[in-house]
Specification:
Layout (H helix, E strand, L loop, with lengths): L10 E5 L7 H13 L3 E3 L11 H10 L3 E5 L14 H15 L8 E6 L17 E3 L4 H12 L11 H21 L9 H15 L1
Helix pairs in contact: 1-4, 1-6, 2-3, 4-5, 5-6
Length: about 210
């Protein structure tokens, strides 16, 4: 039952790269989810704790009604091997929806990529899904996430993506000061620290 999973219908599982190159898009995604009144969840919230990583990811997926899955990282690494973590986690999320019971069947998810239809070259089995493109741009990822979340609010209206983009731009300018106030280094911010600063700014600006 959903009552046994706190905030189930507000929890959004984020499945994306966590490396420095993708960090600007990741942070924009996290901010947008929070600004729209939802709760971002991802594997980084359990970083450094004991246990098997995939078991923790499955546990987080179980607690999330919503999921945003970015499949844009298809480049080969120095050993000429692809990154399969994102498609794997998308598959787990889809399996939970289609093979699970109770509120798990209510799961909804958004698939993101750099460009429309590029996915057909590397994961054609997701053809027919609602896939949005962001072109590797912060404004693009804010628009894609905001527009999709607008269908998950239960009728609650959201600000437009241009307004959210402006708010995020303002937040980024203030972020170094927020970090300084807490004796934190911006580049070293942990997931929970970033979400805390973003939540404080969003609450104060509304």
């Amino acid at each position: 039952m959903s009552k046994n999973i706190p905030d189930y219908h507000l929890n959004v599982f984020i499945n994306c790269p966590f490396d420095p190159k993708f960090q600007p898009l990741f942070r924009a995604m996290v901010f947008t989810i929070q600004y729209c009144g939802f709760i971002p969840r991802c594997a980084l919230e359990t970083a450094g704790s004991d246990g098997i990583r995939i078991a923790k990811i499955i546990g987080i997926i179980r607690e999330c009604a919503l999921g945003i899955h970015d499949l844009s990282r298809t480049e080969l690494n120095q050993n000429q091997l692809p990154r399969f973590n994102m498609p794997l986690e998308l598959g787990i999320f889809m399996g939970a929806k289609h093979l699970g019971k109770g509120v798990q069947t209510q799961k909804k998810y958004l698939i993101l990529d750099k460009a429309h239809f590029r996915f057909k070259e590397y994961v054609s089995d997701v053809s027919g899904q609602d896939i949005a493109s962001h072109n590797g741009k912060i404004q693009g990822i804010i628009k894609a996430c905001r527009d999709w979340l607008s269908h998950c609010t239960g009728g609650r209206k959201l600000d437009g993506y241009n307004y959210i983009f402006k708010k995020y731009s303002d937040f980024k300018k203030l972020l170094p000061d927020f970090c300084s106030e807490n004796n934190w280094k911006e580049s070293d911010l942990q997931f929970n620290e970033f979400t805390s600063l973003a939540a404080n700014y969003i609450n104060a600006s509304k």
